[in-house]
Amino acid sequence: MTLSPQRAGTTAVSPSLDEFLTAPHTAVLTTLRPDGSPHLTPVRFTFDPEAGIARVLTVNTTRKARNVLAAPQARVALCQVDGFRWVTLEGTARVLDTPEHVAEGVRRYTQRYWSGPPNPPGRVVVEIAVDRVLSLNC
């Protein structure tokens, strides 16, 4: 078993980890409710290792968005698993609703998942400034 933590403050990933993060998998996003209890939800996401940003499209009324809005710069984690391979991206999150940020989230989502995401009213993007990457067998 080889655990491969990246150096603190870096989001550089190996070619095999980059391949894993661009395959059309889902992940589980963990945020914290106002009472401190964890909220976990399956999501589709994208990761830009050069910018160190993970993006999750959602709507502003979802629990995950409300949790982040209630605690600006809250710490969150995204964990993608496939068999005995996994990666966790950790960092601080913010919710953005500007057309530019949402459009970038949609563009990256469409590239990763080969089709556009739903377009519900109130769509926002949760941007995670990733500062820690942990992985196994990637």
How does this model look, in words?
The protein has 138 residues and is an alpha+beta fold. Helix content is 22%, strand content 41%. The protein contains 3 helices and 7 strands. A 7-stranded antiparallel sheet has the order 2-1-5-6-7-4-3. β3 and β4 form a beta hairpin. It is globular, with a radius of gyration of 14 Å.
What radius of gyration results from the CA coordinates?
14 Å
Largest sheet, spatial ordering of strands: 2-1-5-6-7-4-3
| Beta-strand residue percentage | 35-45%
- Please give the count of helices: 3
Q: Distance N terminus to C terminus?
A: 11 Å
Q: Can you count the beta strands?
A: 7
Class based on secondary structure composition and strand pairing = alpha+beta
**What is the overall shape?**
globular
What's the main sheet like? 7 strands, antiparallel
In terms of per-residue confidence, which ranges show pLDDT below 50 for 5 or more consecutive residues?
1-9
Mean pLDDT: 91
Helix content: 10-25%
Write the H/E string, N to C.
Answer: HEEEEHEEHE
Write the topology of this structure.
Blueprint: H1 15-22, E1 27-32, E2 38-43, E3 46-48, E4 53-59, H2 63-70, E5 74-82, E6 85-96, H3 99-113, E7 123-136
Antiparallel strand pairs: 1-2, 1-5, 3-4, 4-7, 5-6, 6-7
